[in-house]
TrEMBL record:
It holds the Pfam family TP_methylase. It comes from Lutzomyia longipalpis (Sand fly). PANTHER family: DIPHTHINE METHYL ESTER SYNTHASE, DIPHTHINE SYNTHASE. This is diphthine methyl ester synthase. GO terms for biological process: methylation; protein histidyl modification to diphthamide.
Length: 270
């Protein structure tokens, strides 16, 4: 049996009882380590689970899947995922590959930023399409996600913005070499994301401006969780500390309960 197990927002104890029971009996357990990051560290998980984990980086998940599926028809093999298994298309693809090999599959769900974002006070059923904001380069500055933010606002919906994570990304110079070299890990902050949005706004004037409300979240689900509500322009200078960060662009009109809840994260009257 092949299992994809969500381990929650990062504390070793976030795993479900069902997930932990499976982890303890599996022949091999992989820890997927590139679509999100594990703030508590692999060693903390191993101590709590009582077993060793095999780190599965981007290359293994995308290019060497066969290693993961070895003997999965007759043995129990699991991949652990930060958050929920279906929070990233990578894990959907893993399940489809397993099914192509006629390997029985089972998913164990858990909390992720997709539902935990409600901690900022915005009602989940008022969120529209979630978007991702990638790091820009000097020659590549995509902005197609901006139209989705505007579309959500037009429909009176909030937008959860997932911010770029760059882990074990090969350098351009090493792509043509036998020896692969990697860029240092990078995790986009709410300030960096807001700076890119402000640059788009300069070239695309409309209902979203630097004065529009934005909500920054950091390390959701952890003891060090931080939330701040301010203008998008002010968010460009906010420092929420260590990753992971998420940014929310609320709808133009908020429910009174949303306003009351968010007020605790803002230094000005909303």
């Amino acid at each position: 049996m092949f299992f994809i197990i969500g381990i929650g927002l990062g504390d070793p104890k976030d795993i479900t009882v069902k997930g932990l029971e499976i982890v303890k009996r599996c022949d091999r357990v992989y820890l997927e380590a590139y679509t999100s990051i594990l703030s508590c560290g692999q060693e903390s998980l191993e101590d709590f689970y009582g077993r060793k984990l095999i780190l599965a980086d981007r290359e293994m998940i995308e290019q060497h899947t066969d290693e993961i599926f070895v003997d999965a028809e007759v043995k129990d093999v699991a991949v652990l995922v930060v958050g929920d298994p279906f929070g990233a298309t990578t894990h959907t693809d893993l399940m489809l590959r397993a099914k192509e090999r006629e390997i029985p599959c089972q998913v164990v769900h858990n909390a992720s930023i997709m539902n935990a974002v409600a901690c900022c006070g915005l009602q989940l059923y008022s969120f529209g399409e979630t978007i991702s904001i990638p790091y820009w380069t000097e020659t590549w500055k995509p902005d197609s996600f901006f139209g989705k933010i505007l579309k959500n606002r037009h429909m009176g919906l909030h937008t959860l913005c997932l911010l770029d994570i760059r882990v074990r990304e090969p350098t351009l110079e090493s792509l043509t070499r036998k020896t692969r070299q990697y860029e240092p890990p990078r995790f986009m902050s709410v300030a960096e994301a807001s700076q890119q949005l402000m640059e788009i706004i300069k070239n695309t004037p409309g209902e979203l401006s630097g004065d529009s409300l934005a909500i920054g979240l950091a390390r959701v689900g952890h003891d060090s969780q931080k939330i701040i509500a301010c203008s998008l322009k002010e968010m460009t200078e906010v420092d929420l500390g260590a990753p992971l960060h998420s940014l929310v662009i609320p709808a133009k009109e908020l429910h009174p309960l949303e306003v009351e809840f968010i007020q605790q994260f803002s230094s000005r009257k909303l």
